[in-house]
Design brief:
By secondary structure, this protein is α/β, with parallel strands linked by helices. 46% of the residues lie in helices and 12% in strands. It has 18 helices and eleven strands. The protein is globular. Bound molecules: iron/sulfur cluster.
């Protein structure tokens, strides 16, 4: 993927210089644009309103569940290998937002991944997992009472599910997706299946059974989401789809993929519409085109219930939202090996403010030039900090954009303001982290974590 300047940036206060070319995601990978979903959300998060969540895959089911107040879940994971930074905060904010919208929320500390891929010791995984990630997650507003936080390595049910999912994935496929060569360790490969299991776990009967689940992630995680959707589909006994007969009239076809004897008949017995039952499939007729989507959903529910009755999983294909990446404060990508390029939620507030004051801006060479030509907020990392994290009101953000473009705003004053906002955000967040310790201590499941 290549860098490019957003051509809409001249008129778009939410447009920034993209680190990668997002248009190829829609054209080449079939990711849907999130802006089509935003209008259907009553109170969208600022990441949604501002186009920071740029795309999605299969979010329609989650949207419908939110609108009809039916069950859905949200889950995402954090690899404990470094400090929690603003990129991790974005995922946490998205989990918390969906939890507040009624989703059953899951947050995973991917210690098996960290241990097998980065060689981080179990002790460090635990310490980093708790002290960096879990405390910040709870401090940002994760509802511990109703949500689930876990480490992969201590979750037996998760590891059992990963093993089961492994029966539907093979070495060549995983190697092709992740670029594994022959010297990749086996545990690294297993950790991929554990992450697939993380995504599907919220649909197990222990958590109320199959339901739409959304995974908020950065766009780089799409191959992983596609693999999990493929595996979830392979775990199903049937496929339900719309087809056209020779007169171009639509009907619903239920095709067996892998089911024991008698399961197809059990499905057929529960369908009241006119149908024809064959050895490996059922065709359902007499459905008006205008009611097709509703009927497909109803038949999917019947099929799913029968699958569960016969020991299947009945998984929904997991959905994902994809957010854009922030630029590094020094320009280019954020990198854990360049501390000046990112802000950690656990570093001293003064240090974070200092980094903001030194960040790359979209300012002109001189103040005089800036007044005459205006700044380039779409290329400015300070503007990004304000838009992603520091200013909640859209109207205020638009003002800043216009003040910058018109040359009314100088970078010196602007950076100072952003640095002050960052300072108070980090300070407040660190106070909240102290309160988070007390919250975790009150919970039987979590209290031993805060003693590490
Ligand atoms: Fe960035 Fe602010 Fe300078 Fe505009 S005035 S380029 S938003 S630092």
């Amino acid at each position: 993927m290549k860098g490019r300047v957003n051509s809409a940036a001249e008129i778009d206060p939410w447009g920034v210089t993209d680190v990668i070319d997002y248009s190829s995601l829609f054209e080449d990978f079939g990711i849907s644009r999130f802006q089509d979903a935003v209008n259907q959300i009553a109170h969208p998060h600022q990441y949604m309103r501002r186009g920071i969540i740029v795309g999605h895959r299969g979010y329609e089911d989650v949207l419908r569940a939110m609108q009809t107040k039916s069950k859905f879940a949200v889950m995402s994971g954090f690899m404990p290998s470094g400090r929690i930074h603003l990129g991790g905060k974005m995922v946490m904010d998205e989990i918390i937002w969906h939890q507040r919208m009624g989703g059953d929320a899951f947050a995973c500390i991917a210690d098996m991944e960290s241990h097998s891929v980065r060689g981080v010791s179990w002790k460090d995984c635990k310490e980093i997992g708790v002290n960096e990630y879990i405390l910040s997650l709870v401090a940002l507003g994760f509802d511990v009472e109703h949500g689930h936080i876990y480490f992969q390595s201590t979750n037996k049910q998760l590891r059992d599910l990963a093993f089961e999912l492994g029966t539907e994935a093979n070495y060549s496929e995983i190697s092709a997706i992740y670029g594994f060569s022959g010297d990749v360790n086996i545990s690294h490969m297993i950790s991929v299946l554990v992450q697939n299991a993380d995504i599907l776990q919220p649909q197990l009967s222990e958590y109320g059974g199959p339901k739409p689940v959304v995974i908020p992630v950065g766009v780089d995680q799409d191959p992983h989401i596609r693999l999990t959707r493929d595996i979830a589909s392979r775990m199903r006994m049937f496929r339900v789809e719309q087809r056209l007969d020779k007169n171009q009239k639509p009907y619903i076809s239920i095709r067996e993929k892998q089911a024991d004897k008698g399961v197809l008949e059990a499905v057929a017995s529960k369908i009241e519409s006119p149908k024809r039952v064959y050895e490996m499939h059922i065709d359902v007729f007499g459905i008006e085109a205008s009611e097709m989507n509703q009927n497909i959903r109803e038949i999917e529910e019947i099929v799913r219930a029968v699958e569960l009755e016969y020991g299947g999983y009945g998984f929904f294909l997991p959905a994902a939202t994809y957010h854009r990446f922030m630029q590094g404060l020094t320009g280019g990508k954020m990198s854990s090996s360049i501390p000046e390029s990112y802000i950690s939620l656990t570093e001293p507030a003064e240090e974070a403010a200092r980094k903001v004051k030194q960040a790359k801006t979209g300012g002109r060479a001189t103040v005089e030039e800036q007044k005459r030509l205006g700044g380039l907020p779409e290329e400015c990392t300070v503007y990004e900090l304000l838009m992603f994290h520091l200013i909640e009101e859209d109207a205020r953000m638009k003002e800043i954009f216009e003040e910058c473009k018109s040359g009314k705003r100088t970078c010196k004053a602007c950076k100072l303001q952003a640095a002050e906002l960052m300072h108070s955000f980090i300070k407040r967040h660190q106070e909240e982290r102290e309160r988070a310790k007390a919250v975790l201590k009150e919970h039987e499941v979590y209290k031993e974590w805060v003693q590490v």
